[in-house]
Inverse folding.
């Protein structure tokens, strides 16, 4: 469960003839339980790609498929983690996580069990009755991830989820995400502009060109990760020191640099 | 710090009272008949509460006005907030209603008083109508703006969790708009009092505004002051109660805690 | 929110439909006799009445003359409130001792609805021009004070530090840094003050005045001249709207020059 397919997708904002083209001929196949990161220059339409999978945005041409079905509307099979968390400030941590389950009419006992499990998984037990504004940014994003995970979605869509966090918190959250992916693998579409984050987390990194955005290159990380046994390291900095990591990172950097120069020129 | 502030504040109020004595009694700077002395004020207060003035005793006047405010305010809020929410949520409803609303809005609530008296007479119904009008407009505007200003990702988060419409309204839209709604309620309450006092001054048979009206016609400065202070105390009291409700309802927000 | 914004044409169509329904109901009720004409004259009757009142006197003057009386009072009271309220608010914002002394008194008086000053206003200044001016003052004064106070308190401390670093004297600090930094908030307060002042004036004229639109309306009410009452409402609405538009325009101009989003 959870394959995503972009089939020649285009997106024009505004009116069909006078609007501006944000995406053009985007083709990308994401397999079940695969972690794909999209990187690209700002304004290239990477977030739009994610929003189309989520069902927030319609396609102007082509198709977006999840589990071989065309996406029409948002749904809890595709959980989104937003950059600005988007927690409900009037609900406690527990009520926030529970919200989606109550939509699904999950029976109370089962609901409590699921919520307790995910609170434990994200080490949020001691904050269950806090309101979001009482938590740090990192903690708020943990709640947002818990809220998405508890729905048991086919697909997890993460839109620069660590973009609003400070550097230290960010590193902790990245390690956490790797740990989660090991415990409970999901299909993940991860949007970021941080190249290192993409290389560290993803199985494949898709590089987008500037507007109108299209997939320029897809780089395989998983082969290197497995052969060099990145997952054997506890800490992100140990992985980032490896020659194989540096090599991949530099390659993606160069590819992105070409885009940025083109913007300036 | 707090202590110093309270001390200076109390000192300032004591100073005003002292000044009052000084100006009216000891030096007679304010001519007699223009402003009451503290003694005259006290006598007027005793007179209205013990023997009655303008047809009733003070607490009866005050309760009558308070009751009118509470009823009209609740009616206005119960009609204004849903309309504002609807206009914020549904673009068609907004496009339909907004022009009519914009047309009526510039007419101040006080300007409806003569019409209300023509239509409904000097009784309570006319007061309810004008207060309703005064409190209705801010309720609509702020509920409308409250919905309009909801962070879009909040709605999207709800949609991605498959939220059915009634839950979306009751558990996302309404609470998200609540801080703005309360800003509107505070304005509504203020407007309600102004309007009620004006309406009772223009024509009434009972109420604090009517006390002011009779005191003015009798040229009775001490009773005017009694009426004014009653208006102030009632205004303060209702604002205080609204503040308590707000702190309870908005306990989750940063402002609510502060 | 729920849906995408409507196209301009449909917005206009819906708006037009809303207005048609509004005026349609207002027209149909009295013309079909469902509501007596004395209670609710049709929009056409009211429009005709407004036209008549521009040349014919009612309650001692034509409608434009009444408006002129009201507006003169409004300008005087409003100017007085701004001239006293803004400096007081700024002083409260800059000097803690002024804040601590004036604050509680001001807070106490704020709960008394401005219109409740009418009896004293009439007693002290009469029902001609002085009394109504005092009522406008009572309505417009609090927003002037509150916004000047907020403006003075919310000056970016970095601006003050920058000025201190440049060796700015106290006097120049006030006139060149603190005052200009408070201007956007003060102007916003003036707009609120104008709205409250205008409506307080109407209230005052209903109760104690012998000229002005409010007086005209109350006389019309006594004579059951509903179309004249409504003409007064129209005039009050239009003048109030014009005052608001002018101040809104000024506010936007200042915000634009400061690079704040208008």
């Amino acid at each position: 469960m959870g394959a995503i397919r972009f089939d020649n997708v285009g997106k024009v904002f505004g009116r069909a003839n006078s609007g501006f083209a944000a995406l053009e001929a985007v083709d990308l196949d994401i397999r079940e339980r695969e972690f794909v990161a999209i990187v690209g220059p700002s304004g290239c339409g990477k977030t739009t790609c994610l929003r189309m999978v989520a069902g927030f945005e319609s396609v102007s041409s082509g198709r977006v498929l999840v589990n071989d079905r065309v996406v029409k509307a948002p749904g809890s099979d595709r959980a989104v983690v937003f950059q600005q968390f988007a927690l409900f400030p009037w609900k406690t941590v527990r009520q926030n996580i529970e919200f989606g389950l109550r939509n699904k009419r999950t029976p109370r006992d089962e609901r409590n069990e699921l919520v307790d499990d995910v609170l434990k998984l994200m080490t949020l037990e001691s904050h269950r009755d806090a309101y979001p504004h009482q938590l740090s940014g990192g903690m708020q994003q943990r709640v947002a991830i818990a809220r998405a995970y508890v729905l048991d979605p086919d697909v997890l869509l993460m839109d620069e989820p660590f973009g609003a966090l400070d550097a230290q918190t960010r590193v902790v959250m990245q390690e956490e995400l790797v740990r989660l992916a090991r415990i409970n693998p999901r299909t993940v579409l991860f949007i970021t502009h941080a190249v290192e984050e993409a290389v560290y987390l993803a199985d494949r990194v898709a590089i987008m060109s500037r507007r109108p955005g299209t997939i320029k290159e897809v780089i395989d990380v998983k082969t290197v990760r497995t052969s060099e046994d990145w997952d054997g390291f506890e800490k992100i900095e140990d992985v980032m020191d490896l020659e194989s990591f540096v090599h991949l990172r530099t390659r993606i950097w160069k590819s992105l640099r070409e885009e940025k120069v083109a913007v300036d020129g | 710090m707090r202590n110093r502030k309270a001390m200076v504040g109390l000192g300032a109020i004591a100073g005003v009272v002292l000044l009052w004595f000084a100006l009216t009694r000891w030096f007679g700077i304010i001519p007699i008949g223009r402003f009451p002395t503290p003694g005259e004020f006290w006598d007027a207060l005793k007179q209205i509460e013990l023997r009655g003035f303008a047809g009733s005793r003070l607490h009866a006047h005050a309760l009558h006005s308070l009751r009118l405010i509470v009823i009209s305010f609740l009616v206005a809020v119960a009609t204004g907030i849903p309309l504002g929410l609807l206009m914020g949520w549904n673009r068609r409803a907004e496009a339909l209603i907004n022009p009519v609303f914009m047309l009526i809005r510039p007419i101040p609530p006080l300007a409806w008083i003569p019409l209300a008296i023509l239509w409904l007479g000097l009784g309570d119904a006319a007061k309810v109508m004008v207060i309703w009008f005064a409190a209705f407009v801010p309720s609509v505007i702020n509920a409308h703006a409250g919905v309009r200003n909801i962070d879009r990702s909040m709605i999207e988060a709800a949609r991605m969790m498959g939220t059915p419409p009634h839950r979306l309204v009751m558990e996302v839209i309404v609470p998200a708009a609540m801080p703005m709604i309360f800003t509107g309620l505070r304005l509504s309450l203020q407007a309600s009092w102004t309007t009620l006092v004006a309406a009772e001054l223009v024509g009434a048979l009972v109420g604090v505004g009517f006390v002011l009206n009779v005191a003015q016609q009798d040229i009775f400065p001490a009773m005017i002051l009694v009426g004014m202070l009653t208006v102030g105390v009632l205004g303060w009291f209702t604002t205080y109660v609204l503040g308590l409700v707000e702190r309870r309802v908005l306990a989750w927000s940063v402002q609510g805690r502060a | 929110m729920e849906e995408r914004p409507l196209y301009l044409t449909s917005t206009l169509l819906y708006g037009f439909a809303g207005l048609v329904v509004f005026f349609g109901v207002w027209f149909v009720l009295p013309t079909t006799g469902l509501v007596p004409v004395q209670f609710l004259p049709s929009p056409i009757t009211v429009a005709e009445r407004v036209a008549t009142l521009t040349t014919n006197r009612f309650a001692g003057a034509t409608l434009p003359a009444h408006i002129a009386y009201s507006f003169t009072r409004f300008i005087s009271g409003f100017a007085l409130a701004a001239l006293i309220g803004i400096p007081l608010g700024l002083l409260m914002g800059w000097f803690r001792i002024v804040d601590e002394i004036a604050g509680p008194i001001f807070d106490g008086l704020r709960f008394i609805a401005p219109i409740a000053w009418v009896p004293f206003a009439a007693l002290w200044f009469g029902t001609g021009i002085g009394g109504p001016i005092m009522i406008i003052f009572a309505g417009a004064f609090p927003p002037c004070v509150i916004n000047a106070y907020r403006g003075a308190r919310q000056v970016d401390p970095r601006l003050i530090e920058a000025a201190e670093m440049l060796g700015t004297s106290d006097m120049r600090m006030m006139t060149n840094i603190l005052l200009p930094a408070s201007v956007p908030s003060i102007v916003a307060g003036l707009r609120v003050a104008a709205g409250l002042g205008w409506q307080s004036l109407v209230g005052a004229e209903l109760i104690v005045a012998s000229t002005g639109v409010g007086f005209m309306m109350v006389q019309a009410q006594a004579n059951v001249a509903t179309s004249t009452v409504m003409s007064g409402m129209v005039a009050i609405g239009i003048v109030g709207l014009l005052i608001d538009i002018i101040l809104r325009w000024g506010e936007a101009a200042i915000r634009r020059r400061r690079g704040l989003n208008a």
Chain A touches chain B through 27 residues (CB under 8 Å). Chain A has a mean pLDDT of 86.
